């Protein structure tokens, strides 16, 4: 939360000055221009080395397919890698089942229209875990600053309307501005949104960028 207080030489209080408090907000919509796909490979085997080897080969194929789909290597990174023993529970007894190897990577792309085909390519190459797609803006500050400017204008218009109704003279220079922490919220598609689809249709929609302020005026 940020506050703005005018310099002392710009604030001149009179004994009869009063405070008018208002709030302002503005929400802008923007189409996301980048996406992060979280996917990977899960393999299981009673022999941990075999599970690892199978996983290593499969994830290598997936990464190669993503590169061929136009995603550069620097936009690919491992987000999770683990080896866990799996157990069955029968009649209250813990019985060893196998080892599970999970290698999850994140792939970032700006080619929004190709998200569906990128996922399909990865699945055909061996990916069997599609966790999520996160849509976002590469430059959210530009939209937020615009929304913030409009939020201030909204607050002033409210204060001016109230002043006219009350028949008072409003000082247009704010006595205090408090910025409330709001910004663009990335859009997240969970696995269930696109699982079991042959050709994966992904519609990112739009992101909302909201700015809110509380402002004090004197009259």
TrEMBL record:
Stored InterPro entries: 26kDa_periplasmic_antigen, SIMPL/DUF541
A Pfam family: SIMPL
Segments forming a coiled coil: none
One GO biological process term: DNA damage response
Protein name stated in the entry: 26 kDa periplasmic immunogenic protein
């Amino acid at each position: 939360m940020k506050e703005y207080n005018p310099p002392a030489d710009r604030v001149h209080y009179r004994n009869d000055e009063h405070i008018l408090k208002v709030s302002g907000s503005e929400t802008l919509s923007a189409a996301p221009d980048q996406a992060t796909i979280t996917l990977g490979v899960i393999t299981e085997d009673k022999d941990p080395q075999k599970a690892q080897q199978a996983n290593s080969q499969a994830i290598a194929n997936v990464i190669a397919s993503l590169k061929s789909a136009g995603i550069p290597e620097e936009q690919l990174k491992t987000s999770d890698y683990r080896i866990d023993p799996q157990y069955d529970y029968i009649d209250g007894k813990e019985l060893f089942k196998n080892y599970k190897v999970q290698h999850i990577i994140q792939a970032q792309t700006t080619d929004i229209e190709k998200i569906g085909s990128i996922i399909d390519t990865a699945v055909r190459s061996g990916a069997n875990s599609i966790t999520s797609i996160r849509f976002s803006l590469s430059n959210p500050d530009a939209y937020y600053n615009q929304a913030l400017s409009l939020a201030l204008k909204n607050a002033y218009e409210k204060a001016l309307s109230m002043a006219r109704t009350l028949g008072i003279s409003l000082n247009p220079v704010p006595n205090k501005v408090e910025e409330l922490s709001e910004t663009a919220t990335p859009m997240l598609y969970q696995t269930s949104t696109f699982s079991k689809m042959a050709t994966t249709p992904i519609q990112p929609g739009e992101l909302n960028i909201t700015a809110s302020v509380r402002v004090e005026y004197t009259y």
